[in-house]
Amino acid sequence: MSDNITENIKSIFDSGRKWLELEIRYAKLTATEKLTVLMSTLILGAICLLLGIAIMILLSFSLADVFKSFMSPAWAYLTVSGVLLIIILLIYFFRRQVLENPISRLLSKLILDLKPEKQ
After folding, report:
1. Could you tell me how many helices (H) and strands (E) the chain has, helices first?
2. Mind listing the pLDDT tens digit for each residue in 23-41?
């Protein structure tokens, strides 16, 4: 009788240890997947930011050239600088809607694994 109880206890401990090892392994895989998604999103964002900066520089010079046709070059560059300053101020004032909310939604969806419930 006591051999049967010890065998059952050993079996329970072995099953519990295997279950714990599998849970740890699953947690590692899940963390790796989420970090991969996060890193790829950050890299894609950085690439888009760099390309966007290059595009903005080229568009600024193009717009200044257009303005040079009907105003002095100094005023053309000042006008383009003013337009860029207005864009920067708009982004600053609407940073919550443009930057903070999408980033927090992405991170909460990624970390908390929020999925719509099926009804």
Report:
1. 4, 0
2. 999 989 988 988 898 899 8
Q: How many residues does the chain have?
A: 119
Specify whether the backbone of 28 is left (phi greater than 0), alpha (psi in -120 to 50) or beta: alpha
Share the mean pLDDT of the chain: 88
Question: What's the gap between Cα 6 and its chain centre?
Answer: 52
Instruction: Give every CB contact of residue 75 below 8 A, 6+ residues apart in sequence.
Output: 67
Backbone angles phi, psi at 3, to 5 degrees: -65, -40
The reported pLDDT for the residue numbered 100 is: 85
CA distances from 94 to 9, 41, 85, 99 (A): 61, 22, 14, 8
pLDDT of residue 80: 92
Q: pTM of whole model > 0.90?
A: no
Residues contacting residue 56 through CB under 8 Å, at least 6 positions apart: 84
